[in-house]
Amino acid sequence: MHIAVGPDGDFQANNKLFDNLITGDETWVHLNTPETKRDSMTWKHPSSPVTKVQRSAAKVLATVFWDAKGVTLDILPQGQCINAARYCSTLDRLKETIRRKRPGLLRRGVVLQHDNATPHSANLTQQWLQRYGWEILPHPAHSPDLAPSDFHLFGPLKCHLGGMAFEAEDDLISELRNWFDNLDVDFFRVGINSLLSR
């Protein structure tokens, strides 16, 4: 993969970056998500008491991989933490999903963009990536502005869930899958292409 800075300071990348890029990240999603402050604004007298809606303690960890064509895998482990072994098994499932949903991508070479979380940078994970020849798009530490999931995907997801409450994890997971399935392919293309302006 080649990324270069052009004479005008803009990034230029060969098509492999966008054709072969898979990005992924994790986010906690609560069964009860309050509305955003903007959505819940109402006119009140200054002396009126402020009511706060608390997030529920029940939550799932959504691990989402996606590319310019849509979500390629979403894994929603319940009550589990992500460590290097778990992340490698997630990558195994991602590889199989890519084989089914993106024919030819494994042969052309996957470019993976993920942050520097410990499970992502662990030796076990690095060995997995080397074994399958996946390239890594460098990601500076503590830079959520460079992670498309953070700046493009998870914000709209949490806005969509604002004000919703679910009785069971399965109901929340069903809503997440439905939301991802109903996104237009242009949404994903714009998110991936916006890496150039970051």
UniProtKB/TrEMBL annotation:
GO terms for molecular function: nucleic acid binding. It holds the Pfam family Transposase_1. Signal peptide: none annotated. This is Histone-lysine N-methyltransferase SETMAR.
